[in-house]
Amino acid sequence: MTLTLADARTIITAAEAKASEIGQPMNIAVADAGGNIISHVRMDGAWLGGIDISINKAFTARAFDIQTKDLGDNSQPNQQYYGIHASNHGRIVIFAGGIPLTRDGEVVGAVGVSGGSGEQDQAVAEAGAKAPLA
Amino acid sequence: MTLTLADARTIITAAEAKASEIGQPMNIAVADAGGNIISHVRMDGAWLGGIDISINKAFTARAFDIQTKDLGDNSQPNQQYYGIHASNHGRIVIFAGGIPLTRDGEVVGAVGVSGGSGEQDQAVAEAGAKAPLA
Amino acid sequence: MTLTLADARTIITAAEAKASEIGQPMNIAVADAGGNIISHVRMDGAWLGGIDISINKAFTARAFDIQTKDLGDNSQPNQQYYGIHASNHGRIVIFAGGIPLTRDGEVVGAVGVSGGSGEQDQAVAEAGAKAPLA
Amino acid sequence: MTLTLADARTIITAAEAKASEIGQPMNIAVADAGGNIISHVRMDGAWLGGIDISINKAFTARAFDIQTKDLGDNSQPNQQYYGIHASNHGRIVIFAGGIPLTRDGEVVGAVGVSGGSGEQDQAVAEAGAKAPLA
């Protein structure tokens, strides 16, 4: 049970609509149950540096089955996972914008967004995560 | 002058149609004039290992403004670029499937395809490269 | 549909038995459908350098749904995938010892073996791949 | 004097039992006196991101002959080892779950656990470290 390319496109379309609504171009990536990317788009004008970050927010959200903003709370100095961002060959992102995607209670992939403030990235990722899949 | 996300999607749609026609699921990536990915899709059932390769075929084709199969001819043992695939942090791919995209004679990006034989990858990349852009 | 840890142990036990039979200690790794390692063992006296290679033979076999020895045949100089071993961040292995594992005709993971000659690695991987799963 | 694969399995079995007892699937790895992995298991449902972390908690615990949680205390901002998690090519983990293993007062290897909270990881690693070896 994993996501299809059609699922990924549905998620990306919903996220893009939200990014356009708030007027902030974004990188949006969707990963499958194995943490491997299914699709990525960089909207016109979005950060070059956000390519890697969006892909790795999706990876991180699936790697630990947690939203990256919640992982971030636990990864500040003196918290239980401080230093985790140096693991997994630099693929761990510990700030908002990565959300696991579930189906029947099981994590089947994740969406990652990068291009704006933490709040903006999170809002766009949430819009993607809420898209109804076929 | 570079490619837009809309251009990238047009290219990917044309490449996907060709991949479906030959019955081989593919990873397809489009890079901009800076060699940076605009979009990537992995068709259902396409190789996991082709994510990295499609993205880097597009990078390579733009990095040297050459088709990856032609770079490959020059990169065999005893040829002038032998060993080039170890450069650029492992991002250089020296076999068929990466094609620079031009507009008015200038390279504005590239397409990279991975998922089948060298001939199949090349055919799908060519279909993408031929897509008429708006 | 992927492999469980119990499946991985069954595969490793069968591979270990073969390694003992031929008298060559081995590294044996099993990856899941996403290419991610489920389990690895290094038999006493097996190569340190084989840890990485066994894990990445399993990754490679799943990444391209092909035995690593067959990928190797296609990756020699002047062949269609020459240079592929520089892709995927150094995780591609192009010599014998990696075999995809299928269930109902679908690839659900892979086994990778490293510690002896190409023939020995292949024989041990085949023994693992043939283990009947529950 | 180092650990055997049989020792590693004994340690993993004890750690797995503890993980099952607390109901949290874990990645468990055992390294030898050279810091090199002897065996790794990912229990069904355990984090994908914990593969790398469990292996590197074991490496870290042996690399500095210290529990990773104690190294963590010394690696917070303004402490004496702050920044150490960026060294050793990303292999240093500075939070709970890695424990050196001793025999006759000498460090002969280490166990690393990843999959739950810091407390859970530590409890499972301790269970592994306490397993009586033959």
TrEMBL record, chains A, B, C, D:
Listed Gene3D superfamilies: Haem-degrading domain
Cross-referenced InterPro entries: GlcG_carb_metab_protein, PduO/GlcC-like, PduO/GlcC-like_sf
Source taxon at top rank: Bacteria
Signal sequence, start to end: none
Pfam families linked: HbpS-like (PF03928)
Region named Disordered: 114-134
Protein name: Heme-binding protein
Organism lineage: Bacteria, Bacillati, Actinomycetota, Actinomycetes, Micrococcales
